[in-house]
Design a protein that fits this description.
Elements (H helix, E strand, L loop, with lengths): L2 H11 L3 E4 L4 E3 L7 H7 L11 E2 L7 H8 L4 H14 L4 H5 L3 H11 L4
Antiparallel strand pairs: 1-2, 2-3
Helix pairs in contact: 1-6, 3-6, 4-6
Length: about 110
Amino acid sequence: MTPEQKRIAIAEACGWRGISEQFLVGYAPWRPEPYSDRVNACPIADLDCIPLDPLPDYLNDLNSMHAAEKTMNNNYWWKFVEHLTNICGGGTALGISATAAQRAEAFGLTLQLW
């Protein structure tokens, strides 16, 4: 997968909807109105009335990856730690200093996004 495809897959797993692959924007999960309600309220001729936000840069931003990691339930957490440890070369201390890209890779493998 390309970095952009990974970024989109993580965003979808975190609740983003209506993602434009070309512009890497989508409907953020923190918006108060559910995506389906917003789409249904928009006139067909004016889909620009759906607000789109830039996708987080999960592969380069530790804050974005931290937010993504918080969406995992406890059932996935130990698998995530296992993947992260393997990606970082073994040893639990290495996972503490993992980059955003390493965390994104472990997240994708844990949720079987790729």
